[in-house]
Amino acid sequence: MAEEIFKIKNLQDFEHKALEVFRFQAENNLVYRKFIQYLGIKSAEVQTLSAIPFLPISFFKSHQILSSNAEPAIVFSSSGTTGTVNSFHPVIDIDLYRQSFQQAFYKFYGDIAEYNLLALLPSYAEREGSSLIYMVDDLISKSRPDSNYFLYNHQELADKLCQLQKEKQKVILIGVTYALLDFIETYQFQFPELIVIETGGMKGKRKEIVREELHEILCRGFGVPKIHSEYGMTELLSQAYSKGDGIFKCPPWMKVIIRDTNDPFQYLSANKTGGINVIDLANLYSCSFIATQDLGRLHEWDRFEVLGRFDDSDIRGCNLLVQ
Fold this sequence. Notes:
The termini are far apart. By secondary structure, this protein is an alpha/beta fold. It contains ten helices and 14 strands. Strands 1, 4, 5, 6, 7, 8, 9, 10, 11, 12, 13 and 14 form a twelve-stranded mixed β-sheet that branches. It has a two-stranded antiparallel ribbon with strand order 2-3. The longest helix is centred in the N-terminal third of the chain and has 18 residues.
């Protein structure tokens, strides 16, 4: 089953595989199975994507979400903030995660070996259990020799960006939002070829601002036409990417559905705001059907936008900006 996830080519393939994964997890995931039973749903009668129940993401704070009896290869944890309860995601098959982020990166950006990957991720790099750091570690290992992490050594990062621009090399700078803002308060660039990927999250370091204002500030600071974004979280093994304007697109094995905020079993059409449900088929040995605490809306051609978070949800390291 696992090897077929990354061979999905169209919506028909996705729906077929999603229903197969649902049946597997409804049988083998104790927490998800009980959740389905409490809803009064018979898994054998679920025949469409819209009939699949989505597990609230908060279950990752209080339960071990596994669709296997095997020992986890690694346990990822959310960053959170002081006073919040972190989520934990035990991962049985780490190769599924590697395949997911490697193939997604290739789909959106091409061969990582062509890039210098510079990472400004202080809050993530200073703790254990970050799935983002696991991904960036792997991508850095496969990228060009000047790739590296930069914690608070902003002068070194500025010098490296200047060097790589002069050498006309391809560069991606991935950074947590507050750290990118801190950096450009001191250093300004005109580097239109630079790809800046913000991962979201002020982490209590700065006041939250709307995405349009944030991206305008970052565009001016780095001298780039657009700011890219990554949408991922501890509970998922896949990421969606935006190449500008906050409009995200999923890889073929991931899909976003928008639920009605007043009725979680009703789904909304394009351009209507609601809660974001994610189907992540790479989450094979966890739960692939997750109701997040993010608000968003679908656009045409299966693209989506993240508009903020529910008022009563915890502030997360990956939280995006309320508009």
